[in-house]
Amino acid sequence: MAALRVSSALASSSTSCSSSSSSSFHCYPSIFTKLQSSPFWSLSISVTPLYSRKAKRMAHSIAYATLGLTQPNPSDAPKISFAAKEIDLVEWKGDILAVGATEKDVARDECSKFKNPLLQKLDSKLSGLLSEASFEEDFSGKSGQSTVLRLPGLGSKRIALVGLGSLTSSTTAYRTAAAKSAQASNIAVALASTDGLSIESKLSSASAITTGALLGIFEDNRFKSESKKPTLKSLDILGLGTGTEIEKKIKHAADVCAGVILGRELVNAPANVLTPAVLAEEAKKIASTYNDVLSANILDVEQCTKLKMGSYLAVAAASANPAHFIHLCYKPSSGEIKKKIALVGKGLTFDSGGYNIKTGPGCSIELMKFDMGGAAAVLGAAKALGQIKPSGVEVHFIVAACENMISGTGMRPGDIITASNGKTIEVNNTDAEGRLTLADALVYACNQGAEKIVDLATLTGACVVALGPSIAGIFTPSDDLAKEVVAASEVSGEKLWRMPMEESYWDNMKSGVADMVNTGGRQGGAITAALFLKQFVDEKVQWMHIDLAGPVWSDKKKNATGFGVSTLVEWVLKNSTN
């Protein structure tokens, strides 16, 4: 008989899952919490000479739990007080007055002076220094362009010009300005031109300003030993109206941003911290926080086995960290439920590729913590919707969380696995694992009675090749669902592009010994992946697959984007009775 002993020193370095705010998580395997409660800070595991699989898993998980001894710092999610006001810009007192200007707004006369009345007024108050300084800074009003000037003569200490391009509701532009204003304590934002703007346009601009500020100053510093914290405490929105409607719009934008920030944090968290178990704990925390409308059901390996989820469990088989199947359910606290929909997210907390291991330039194995970007979007949406509380719609949030690793117990190329709908799959590439987990998740979603399903996954490099890093591909047989989701993305500002589902490509997915193979080669790889997923969706259900492998991560910022959360929230709201 063999035994494994964990020393008191090892046990004392452990912590458990905890949270200090609604958008932060600090989770470490809880097994050590149980050890510390014992008078003997040690653990003995009896192992038979055959080394049972369960014992080996436990031994591996104890060793893996201490990897790096990393303990995230508390989340620094922005806490900003927003207010909509109607006051004269020159009278506003604070650190920075930011004026959003389109390219048309900054047109100048023959004397290089502004033609726009509001900019003229500010320039006159500043003795012409605003037009002069902005001209020298080559400010033209292009989207994302901004300049901050310290000029005497106003109630504010500094004035900023923010380029909006051709749109007054440019979230990207306000985000850039907010990032530059992060060390100010209070700022005000106004538009150079509000004449002719509809009430809806003004509300959209207020929403964009709120979103730009919250996401612009947010930095995920949980894993840095030292960081500079933003000092922005308040933001006044000037000249866009006051009252209940604009206050609701500001709150809605803030609620969505809370979900986006959670999505970013989940994707940014490394695989040695964010294991499938920790992701499940985060999901349970969301449900607990909004327990008036959300409930959680986490299925373990044994329960998934009873549901015959052979496709999902095959992917998880090699990892020392067990699979956790996450199911949150949103039900309004009152009123009739008229629609049932499901959001399904790919939840690979790390993807090594399995026996078809990721190797060579461009394989991005070091970034494979983001292979749960679909799950992050789904859970971020759950958090936002828990705050917004739409009526008339039941929403299921589903994530088949696991790791794709390598071991003697792992899935091999050539294995035949069986999904929960009875279909068999010949595994010709273990690195096409996400679709295998989604297969059982989609069957499960259909079994919940969902009428519409949207799945999100960092599924294929082929989609990134086709659409680049900023655009997600969408695949659906339903024109109506495509219109719904695209309309939601136009509100959120996230870029989607509908891709074809060429049925003739399914010939590449046929197997000689099973119902199908799991990958059909490089040509049309994103399309064949979508066709594979279609095999696990009931024909009566409207279904869409979103491949967000490109926009889930920013190579420039080396950070997660939170992509998908905003569009999902807007789509659910379009299906609600709010």
Structural class: alpha/beta
CATH architecture of the largest domain: 3-Layer(aba) Sandwich
Shape: elongated
Instruction: State the CATH topology of the largest domain.
Output: Aminopeptidase
Percentage of residues in strands: 15-25%
SS elements, strand count: 21
> What is the CATH class name of the largest domain?
Alpha Beta
Number of domains: 2
Proportion of helical residues: 25-40%
- Describe the oligomeric state of these chains in a short phrase: single chain
GO molecular function, one term: manganese ion binding
Keywords: Aminopeptidase, Hydrolase, Metal-binding, Protease, Stress response, Transit peptide
Organism: Capsicum annuum
Subunit structure: Homohexamer (dimer of homotrimers).
Description:
This protein has about 575 residues and is α/β, with parallel strands linked by helices. It folds into two domains: about 80-240, Leucine Aminopeptidase, subunit E, domain 1 (3-Layer(aba) Sandwich); about 250-575, Zn peptidases (Aminopeptidase, 3-Layer(aba) Sandwich). About 35% of the residues lie in helices and about 20% in strands. The chain contains 17 helices and 21 strands. It has helices spanning about 10, 30-35, 55-65, 115-125, 130-135, 170-180, 200-215, 245-270, 275-290, 300-305, 310-315, 375-390, 435-445, 460-465, 480-490, 525-535, 565-575, and strands spanning about 1-5, 45, 80-85, 95-100, 145-150, 155-165, 185-190, 235-240, 295-300, 325-330, 340-350, 395-405, 415-420, 425, 450-455, 470-475, 495-500, 515, 540-545, 555, 560. The strands form five sheets. It has an eight-stranded mixed sheet, sandwiched between helices. The protein has a six-stranded mixed sheet with strand order 3-8-7-4-6-5, sandwiched between helices. Strand 7, helix 7 and strand 8 form a beta-alpha-beta unit. The radius of gyration is 26 Å and the shape is elongated. The N and C termini lie far apart (about 65 Å). Residues about 1-65 have low confidence and may be disordered.
